[in-house]
Amino acid sequence: NNGIDTASSYPYEARNNACRFDQQNVGATTIGFVDIQSMNETALQIAIATVGPVSVAIDASKSTFQFYRSGVYNELTCSSTSLNHGVLAVGYNKTTSTPYYIVKNSWGTSWGQKGYIWMSL
After folding, report:
1. Number of domains composing the chain
2. Is 101 found in the same domain as 44?
3. Are residues 50 and 103 in the same domain?
């Protein structure tokens, strides 16, 4: 594990490029992982609370996701099998009328809520 560059040193670009990994810009390394059963939201919430941020795959093909700005995102036509984008579930809030996950996207701080989206539980 050589680590991963920081978001500021390796920002998202909406195109396919060759890898430009630079060991001098490493912001994090992994020391292990926990496998969470697919479609098990209770296990996901436990992992977020006890282990930390969790990489998850989502359907990001809907324009409602691509142009998200604020509020709790609840796209009823999203697929649970056509997953085409990786994001980071960093927290959740179950104290509001519409509970949601706090999710960090990789598209920069100009997308969503400074790079984050609230996705309904």
Report:
1. 2
2. yes
3. yes
Give per-residue pLDDT as tens, 62-97. 999 999 999 999 999 999 899 999 999 999 999 999
pTM of the model: 0.85
The CATH number of residue 45's host domain is: 3.90.70.10
- Please list the residues that pair with 101 across neighbouring strands: 92, 119
Q: Which residues pair with 92 in a beta bridge?
A: 101
Q: Are residues 56 and 91 in the same domain?
A: yes
CA 113 to chain CA centroid, Å, is: 13
Q: What is the 3-state secondary structure (H, E, C) of the chain?
A: CCCEECCCCCCCCCCCCCCCCCHHHEEECCCCCCCCCCCCHHHHHHHHHHCCCEEEEECCCCHHHHCCCCCEECCCCCCCCCCCEEEEEEEEECCCCCCEEEEECCCCCCCCECCEEEEEC
Phi, psi (deg, nearest 5) at residue 45: -65, -40
Residue among 39, 40, 35 at smallest CA distance from 80: 39
